[in-house]
Amino acid sequence: MRVAIIGSGASGIAAAYYLKQAGFADFTLFEKSDDLGGTWRDNRYPGVACDVPSHLYRFTFAPNAEWTRRCSPGAEIQAYMRDVAKQIGAFEKIAFNHEVTKVQFADGGWEVETSKGPYGHFDAVISASGALHHPKMPNIDGIESFLGRSCHSAQWDDATDLTGKRVGVIGSGSTGTQITATLADHVQSLTLFQRTAQWIMPLPNYPIAEEKRQEYRDDPAKMDGYYHYLAGRFNEVFGDAVSGHNPEAYEHMAEACEENLRTSVTDPELRAKLTPDYAVGCKRLVLSDSFYEAIQRPNATLETGAISKVEQNGVRMEDGSLHELDYLIYATGFHAHSLCHPMHIAGRDGRVLAEEWADGNYAYRSVAVPGFPNWFMIGGPNSPIGNFSYLMTAEHQAKYVVSLIKEASISGTVEPKPDVTDAYNAELREAMNGTIWVSGCDSWYFDKQGRVASYPWSFSRFAEEMQTPNLADFHIRP
Ligand code: N01
User: Fold this and answer.
1) Which member of 83, 255, 352, 398 lies 3.0 to 4.6 Å from 18 by CB, making a disulfide possible if both were Cys?
2) Going by CA atoms, what residue is nearest to atom 39 of ligand 1?
3) Which is higher by pLDDT, 243 or 209?
4) Main-chain phi, psi angles of 54, to 5 degrees
């Protein structure tokens, strides 16, 4: 089997590892950029870190005793991704600066075309192209007229020095709060433009002492034990609390967020502005132990009024006031549902994936779509998202996809049956009705059709679903 993997972020690396494990060594990872790492390559804003503890946010096949903090900074995660890709022999298989533009089903396989022209024929394709990587700019008038400097959080210029500058941050999600928490200390003034308040769970981010690292180097089994402990905490307690499968843990979580706000913010007026008007967990929880402190600094301002427009010198509010700024950061999130965009993916019988998904992305168990034989996805529609380790999700899906590729190597092509796919999606939508995500807030979980594109069941159910493919759910053709 010759396999094309689209993307060399965490999902692509996981796919490469499990392909190799299964004896499929003939694969190419296509990477549009000149470096791997996906989200960790793109996001280099001040304070970028993963809010999943590092000893959990790592591949099961690549334990790492060297993490320096409980939640290590983005640059460290990016270095880890690079090291792992090298260790598992995936690095040399990356075709850098090859953006896949077109993938066409032909002769029982796929013709792959990149920004550099036709590349070749593959027996199977794994799309590992990520969800949170198309930066979303806000629809605010006058953005182009700003005379200071500005950027989207995922397009950070490493040469930027904000010392002594008047900085504005639009957006108060996980990104905006990390930027605020880090920058407030270094800039002349920081104004956070918050449209909707966020629930914030305290997560102390302490350094990991050298003695602890040595302990993990000396005793990898201990480090493994810690991984499984964290996985239990995050998936069965935290993840299941949010997805409605652990009401007791949910209560604790909600109380922790409420208490964090109550005890951390002293000024009642500021506290009122920071108090969300929706249930804890409706939007993705922000985890931070430094945001509240930062926003209470004398040089920080929380602006909750409506933005009228961006002008040459700053941001004009609906009430007529102007925030004069030197630098404006758009922490306004991503087009999270533009999966596989803008590739042209043409399957069997002239089907085009973008057309199939015109009324919303769907898949069979997130990994495959009827009409697209031997086309697989990691991080596809309704993959578990939220506050647990995405690397776990990616690994489960990669193993499952490789099992299907094994079947294809014996039989020809595999493709999910349409009726089974429809039934799966109907069940999924039904289950979504009772979740916290639809309890009365807006978030990036919603797609254009107003449907939540998350996974409504427990993580253990997901892990079980990904154990072994039920081949009766697939058309298997020579
Ligand atoms: O993006 P978001 P993000 N005017 O979409 C606001 C992962 N992540 O980059 O809430 C004014 O969550 C918008 O306001 P509102 C994680 O999965 C993880 O922060 O829509 N404001 C919101 O406040 C996360 O959930 C980590 O009212 C506007 C913000 O912009 C996901 O990435 C770190 C606006 C967008 O928030 C996305 O997080 C960072 C407008 N016109 C990211 N338009 C960690 O692991 C948008 N907003 C720590």
Assistant:
1) 398
2) 175
3) 209
4) -60, -35
Distances (CA, A) of 33 to 10, 30, 98, 377: 15, 9, 7, 20
The answer on pLDDT for 387 being more than 90 is no
Q: What's the pLDDT at 434?
A: 84
Same domain, 226 and 129: no
Query: Ligand 1 pocket, 442 CB below 6 A?
Result: yes
Q: According to the model, what pLDDT value does residue 65 have?
A: 98
Give me the long-range contacts of 39-43 (CB less than 8 A, separation at least 24): 39/9, 39/10, 39/130, 39/132, 39/133, 40/9, 40/10, 40/74, 40/77, 40/78, 40/81, 41/9, 41/78, 42/133, 42/154, 42/155, 43/74, 43/153, 43/154, 43/156, 43/175
Q: Phi/psi of residue 201, each to 5°?
A: -95, 130
Give residue-wise pLDDT tens across range 133-171. Answer: 899 999 999 999 999 999 999 999 998 999 999 999 999
Q: What is the pLDDT of residue 110?
A: 98
In a domain, 211, yes or no: no
Residue 332 in contact with ligand 1 by CB distance below 6 A:
yes
- What are 207's two structure tokens? 């350094």
How far apart CA 94 and CA 5 sit, in angstroms, is 9
From the CA of 52, give the closest atom in ligand 1. 45
Kindly state the DSSP code that residue 208 receives in the 8-state scheme: P
Residue 220 belongs to some domain of the structure: yes
- How does the average pLDDT of the chain come out, rounded? 96
In the numeric block, which tokens belong to residue 407? 């079947």
- The model's pLDDT over 433-448, given as tens digits with 9 standing for 90+, comes to 989 999 999 999 999 9
Q: What residue owns the CA closest to ligand 1's atom 2? A: 333
From 280, 307, 330, the end of a domain falls on: 330
